[in-house]
Amino acid sequence: MLLSHFLLFTLVLTRVSGLVMTAPIYGSQEVPVRIRALLAFSLAVLITPLHWGAQVAWPANVPEYLALILGEVLIGLVLGVGILILFSGVQLAGQVISQTSGMSLGEVFNPDLDTEVPVFSQLLHLLALAVFVLIGGHRLVMEGLLGTFVTLPLGSGGAPTSIAHSLTTLMMHSFDLAIRAAAPATAALLLATLVLGLISRTVPQLNVMALGFGLNSFVTFGVLALGMGGIAWAFQEQLEVSLELMLEGLHAARETL
């Protein structure tokens, strides 16, 4: 009896850990590993008693048990990585804007990615994090995790095909978000470049390079200031769609088992 409860706890812990170690806010590199591990352990302690009666086909040997563990980790990773894929779309938009405006040389450290990124990528990343918290994204992710214990009972694992299809669709949504976020600034910078080209033809004596850098900076900051609300709205819309898509993918994985 105690052994079965302990094994059940390990399944819950691995599923929760897959999410806590990867999802935004919870899996941030700024949060110490000990704190994340403690959070995963605490959540597992709270969730496990709700599933004492779960019917789990316990494996007869260690390799089969490890396969169950990997299946539970995969479910948690799908939720966490799915949200990260959407965040990568916002960062891609910032990368495109930085490259187009000529400001890609100025980089700042992003602790979530553990690398340096352009300033606009970090700016849009922080905007996405703010929107994520304001709309209760951290709670929605946890609700989604709790829902997986109903749609995908412990020990059932998941169908890689349906999960891979969901992640592929999420990448499409992420790329769509990147285009929508970067399009206004990119179009404005293209127009500014055309204007500078006409000026250089009309007034050859003018130092267009020095003028162009200042103009590009002004246009970029101006368009971003005006379009920040639109980017936040687009991210919120895609976030809600992505959460539904991931849960549907996990539910489809259950139906194919």
Short description:
With 257 residues, the chain is mainly alpha-helical. The protein has 7 helices and 2 strands; from the N terminus they run αααββαααα.
Shape: elongated
- Summed up, the domain count is 1
Question: What is the number of beta strands?
Answer: 2
| Rg of Cα set | 23 Å
- Give the termini distance in whole angstroms: 27 Å
Low-confidence stretches: none
- Number of DSSP helical runs: 7
Major β-sheet annotation: 2 strands, antiparallel
Q: Determine the mean pLDDT.
A: 80
How are the strands ordered across the major sheet? 1-2
Relative strand content: under 5%
Structural class estimated from helices and strands: mainly alpha
Order of helices and strands: HHHEEHHHH
Helix % is: over 70%
What does it look like?
This protein has a two-stranded antiparallel sheet. It starts with a helix and ends with a helix. Strand 1 (107-110) and strand 2 form a beta hairpin. Helix 3 (62-101) packs antiparallel against helix 7 (208-255). The mean pLDDT is 80. It has one domain. With 257 residues, it is mostly helical. The chain is built from seven helices and two strands; from the N terminus they run αααββαααα.
